[in-house]
Amino acid sequence: MIISINQPAYIPWLGYYERIVxxxxxxVLNHVQFEKNSFINRNKIxxxxxxxxxxxxxxxxxxxxxxxxxxxxxxxxxxxAHLKTLNQNYSKTKYFKKYFEEIQxxxxxxxxxxxxxxxxNNMNLFLLKELDINTKIEYSNExxxxxxxxxxxxxxxxxxxxKTYLSGINGKEYLELDDFNKNGIEVxxxxxxxxEYYQPTNKFHPYLSVLDLLFNExxxxxxxxxxxxxxxx
Length: 233
Known about the structure:
By secondary structure, the protein is of the alpha/beta class. About 35% of the residues lie in helices and about 15% in strands. The chain has 8 helices and 8 strands; from the N terminus they run E-H-E-E-E-H-H-H-E-H-E-H-E-H-H-E. Strands 5-2-1-6-7-8 form a 6-stranded mixed beta sheet. A two-stranded antiparallel ribbon has the order 3-4. The protein starts with a strand and ends with a strand.
């Protein structure tokens, strides 16, 4: 059993999906506290002036809330703005029509949805389907595991009897590897080598939302994502 764990993310980058596709099981870590200025509720797309953020706004009353409790505001305003920005910057790409109509439907249906996690999850399930990624998905708020940091990751791995954990590179900063070794769990750290793909620009712009890849490369997207696979111990 190979497991990966990540906080939910809005239209995330390629490396997010690379760990998922290389896992037997992916855990959406949605019961921990929301991190301000993270990629949970925002990501970047490409414009003719460079990259720009698409952000889902929220109120200050969300402070100290867990991710799955987090709420959004002004949905109609930000959804219309996101759709307009995507249309303005990607309408001429080869695969725009293939994906945009469904993206528009998903976001439009979210106008009356207050829960941030649900909006993100609806979009992510669509993106996983379009990328042809069939990894099983579970959600940490349904597990009743309340440990913290390294112990939390270890407890989730043990809960699912995982023998390999695919960690983000930042896991090197806090994971207690001796504890994982004692439990017979191998930890591999993602060392993603961002692949280049077609963009209608003179200079390639990495670390954008996966939407940039899908609009430009369509059905080739998953193979391009896999090209960046690299792990270190």
